[in-house]
C-alpha cells in the first residue's frame, strides 16, 4: 500500500506536537503504518530524519513549559512531554544540552549568575552552551523545519 508522505508526516507531526517524547513505534502505530514507513515518509517529505524532527518537537515544547508562568515542576514537564520518568527527561536534557534541567531552565529564563542557587559551578563553558541549537548540515547551514 502506498501512502501520501505529506499527509502521513502531517499526522505524525500533530501527534508529536501533543506528546513529543512518545516513542516513534507508537506514533507510527497511531498513524496506521510501520515505524520504517513513517521514517521513510519523513525522509521523503521533510528531508530530515524522523528522530531529528522528534528531538526538535521535544525541545520546543520543553522550552515553552520551562518558561511557563507559574513555573511547572520538572515532574510536570516530564509528564507533559511524554517521558516515562523525570529522570528520563533529565538524561535527555543532559545529552542534548550538557546541562541539568534546573540549569537549563535558569539559562532559558535569563537568570543572572548571582541569582543561581546551587545550579552547577557556573563555569564559562557551562554558560556558553546554547540550548537546543539547530544542527548544522554538511555545508554548515542551520537546519529548520
Report on the structure:
This protein has 145 residues and is an all-alpha fold. It has a single domain, classed as Homeodomain-like (Arc Repressor Mutant, subunit A).
CATH superfamily: Homeodomain-like
Please name the CATH architecture.
Orthogonal Bundle
Helix tally? Answer: 8
Question: What is the CA–CA distance across the termini?
Answer: 27 Å
Task: Give Rg in angstroms.
Answer: 17 Å
Task: Estimate the global geometry from the Cα principal axes.
Answer: elongated
Class based on secondary structure composition and strand pairing: mainly alpha
CATH topology heading: Arc Repressor Mutant, subunit A
Strand elements, count: 0
In CATH, what is the class?
Mainly Alpha
Largest pleated sheet: none
